[in-house]
UniProtKB/TrEMBL annotation:
The name this protein goes by in its record: Manganese transport system ATP-binding protein mntA
Occurrences of domain ABC transporter (ranges): 6-229
Key word ATP-binding present: yes
InterPro entries from the UniProt entry: AAA+_ATPase, ABC_transporter-like_ATP-bd, ABC_transporter-like_CS, Metal_Ion_Import_ABC, P-loop_NTPase
Length: 229
């Protein structure tokens, strides 16, 4: 099974009369790890949100699935949870898994699945903490666990390493590489060129509102160095 190719036709974005993205046309190959990089404020997160249909852009984003269209997994750039929210990690995951209100009966199978996912991101021992009690790295792990639940072949991951310690970064990298190896089409917004050189299949740079794609093979690391000089 392979994720979709993503075709972008004259995609542009303007908010409050500010042009965030100049028209972009590109074809993103399926089953690849696409790194999106570029300076702060260049429009990387906005671009990802356009791919997801979360921003009122002009132009088209076409998803070419090889079979039936699937779900999209989105891991947003880190945001804080409201500290007083009376929701634990387990309850948060439960609502993601069941799409039911919290007062419905918790089924053992759901709790077991949640346990598996939390184990995978190293949060199993924190399942009873409230969202507002989580550290930045823990929030990042939780958002990733929630996205994993969707078993998607199309992933958009916005700066996944923010706040993660070294072990967390290694396991996040392994998870992302595994998604790609399983055939998913993966977009990762990332600033770390060494990481991109080692793990990404393609590099796309958004700069000054324009998407200039400088695509390189993972094996041609010298080309990446040239692109980023
Ligand atoms: N509603 C809005 N109206 C006008 N400008 C906005 C609005 N929302 C975001 N922006 C601006 O759009 C630009 C692009 O933001 P975006 O978050 O996409 O950048 P980014 O490349 O992901 O940045 P970073 O690397 O810092 O995360 C920024 O300059 C931001 O201030």
């Amino acid at each position: 099974m392979m994720g979709p190719a993503i075709e972008v036709q004259s995609l542009s974005l303007q908010l409050n009369r500010v042009v965030l993205l100049e028209p972009i046309s590109a074809m993103f190959k399926p089953g690849r790890l696409h790194a999106i990089s570029g300076p702060n404020g260049a429009g990387k997160s906005s671009f990802i949100k356009c791919l997801l249909g979360l921003m009122p852009h002009t132009g088209q984003v076409l998803r070419h699935w090889s079979g039936r269209p699937g779900q999209i997994a989105y891991v947003p750039q880190q945001s804080a949870f409201e500290a007083s929210l009376p929701v634990t990690i387990e309850e948060f995951m439960l609502t993601s898994i069941t799409r039911w209100p919290l007062f419905f009966k918790r089924r053992d199978a759901h709790l077991q699945r949640i346990d598996e996912l939390l184990q995978r991101v190293g949060l199993a021992s924190k399942r009873h903490l409230r969202l507002g009690q989580l550290s930045g790295g823990e929030r990042q792990r939780l958002l990733f666990a929630q996205a994993l639940e969707r078993q998607s072949l199309l992933w958009c991951i916005d700066e996944p390493m923010t706040g993660l310690d070294q072990a967390g970064q290694l396991s996040m990298t392994a998870e992302i590489a595994q998604l790609r190896d399983q055939g998913a089409t993966v977009f990762v917004v990332h600033h770390d060129m060494e990481w991109i050189q080692q793990y990404a299949d393609e590099l796309w740079i958004i700069e000054g509102g324009l998407a200039q794609h400088r695509m390189v093979s993972r094996k041609q690391s010298s080309l990446i160095a040239e692109a980023c000089a």
